[in-house]
Amino acid sequence: MLLTEVMMADRGISTKTQLLAEIDKAWAALGSYLARLSEAQMTTVHDEHGWTVRDHLTHMAAWEGSVVFFLQGKPRYEALGVEEPLFSNGSFDDMNEVIQQLRKDLSLAEATAQLQSTHGLLMSLLQPLTDGDLNQPLRHYLPSSPASDRRRAIDLVRDNTAHHFSEHLGWIEALVAAP
Hints:
Blueprint: H1 16-35, H2 39-43, H3 53-71, H4 76-80, H5 84-89, H6 92-103, H7 108-126, H8 131-134, H9 138-141, H10 153-159, H11 162-177
Helix pairs in contact: 1-11, 3-6, 3-7
């Protein structure tokens, strides 16, 4: 699916309180699981695509960082480290491959620090926002957002935090559990 084809409908979340509760729950679950892993489990076990747990951490930090840039009125592709044409017309798999390659040499400590720092920054940017702010369309924050992307800011935040953390937690658990 192309990023410009994303047309999300209201998925039942419309308040900052709901959003923060979902983010906090997913972040806590991710952190709790990661705290039980050894460095070797996080850096030497690879999935069929060559990703380690560390790669998942840098990936989540990159996408969460793209939301930080969005809220600051900067193009999301810059935070991801991908070119604008790839961001606008490429697949998520293609973007994620670039993201992984750009960050493959970060140590586990650097990857963890980057994820924690990015998450803290995003949470601080969310604090002053109101329900009304979060329910604005993406174009309100970044006029260059594709007109075809009908998401609200709250959807973008949720997709790249709570939903993303939960999604990757499942993949991380499967990766670590694999023989």
